[in-house]
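Section 5.1 Outputs to date
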Amino acid sequence: MKRLPHSAFISALLSFPALLAVAGPSLPEGFNEEKLRQVVKAVAPPSFDVRFIAIKASAMRSDTGEARGTLTANLTEDLYEDAGADLLGPDVDGVARPTVLRKTYRKREILELPIRFSFAKISGEWTIHEWATQPSFQTLGAPLGDFPSGAVIAGATQGDAAVRAYQTAAKKASAARNAPASVSTSSEERAAKSREEAKEREEARRAATEKKARDAKQAAEEKAEAARAEAQRDLETLQTACTPPRRYTGTITDRDGAHEVDLVFNHIERAGDLVRAELLDRNSSMRRKPLSGAIRANKLLATHYEVVLVGVSDGSTRSALTRSSQIKASGIQTTLILTPDREGNLVGNYSFRTFVAGQTTSTFRPTPLTNQETFSIRFRPSL
């Protein structure tokens, strides 16, 4: 792990677009360094502002892959660790032990951490299986608010005073335990009472800490279960919406103007692994566009699903998404990405682009004749 000076970090930010333009290690389809940064930033502790990720090496296979690189983060607050073991020594019966913290990193400090990603292809879609930094975020320290109230900081006036007070009290307690047997009975009773009170306070503190940990674990489990249930509901709702003979009506816009169309689902199998439908122009029974695709998880929000339908017209024999060498004719690729809303409509984006086949038969290279055009669309159920 490296600590970068602020000036070096600014320089890296300015050169980042140029770095992306240089051919580098390959990543699964649909992923780039910016998307990886977004995924990590969404779950990283709030103290770590993940600024960018640079992939330096990768190894991709047919259905799995790995990538290694560096993560650069800017700290949004100071980080600390518990320094009691170093500064206070072992516990002493009858002496209340303060929580003493040591600062590990300062706010606005720039950290550069090695990071590793593993990928897996599930139902034809690449997803992130797991990722990890070395060292992990948790071992670098925690913000002050994560420690018990009343914690003091070593090196500060209050922290050093707490350390000295504990050390003085510990010495007195040790001396009292080693005193001759002639110590008065009242002194022994006071020491015993003090120890008992300290023990009770420690037990209460530990019980509160354990309860806090149990509550946090239960809340995390409930949140995860709610997310899984929401994902299953989204999937079932979308599967039902795509089940034949479902029909929807909407308006699409292309270079010929606006058209009232029907979207008709006529085939679904394996719970959405394959979906077929047709776009029918309501003003011309001859204009029919077959579409095919699948229900897939949203690549950034794992609790949402969408149906992706693609069609290619004007002579192409296979979907343009396959990049097949069999495609030799020009045509128009139409793509619909839709999700159901609360009213039972299908909403999302409709896009099309004109392309021509490449000059060689080994690779299909779409060459846009115009910029790709994308429109929002809403399909309502058709009775």
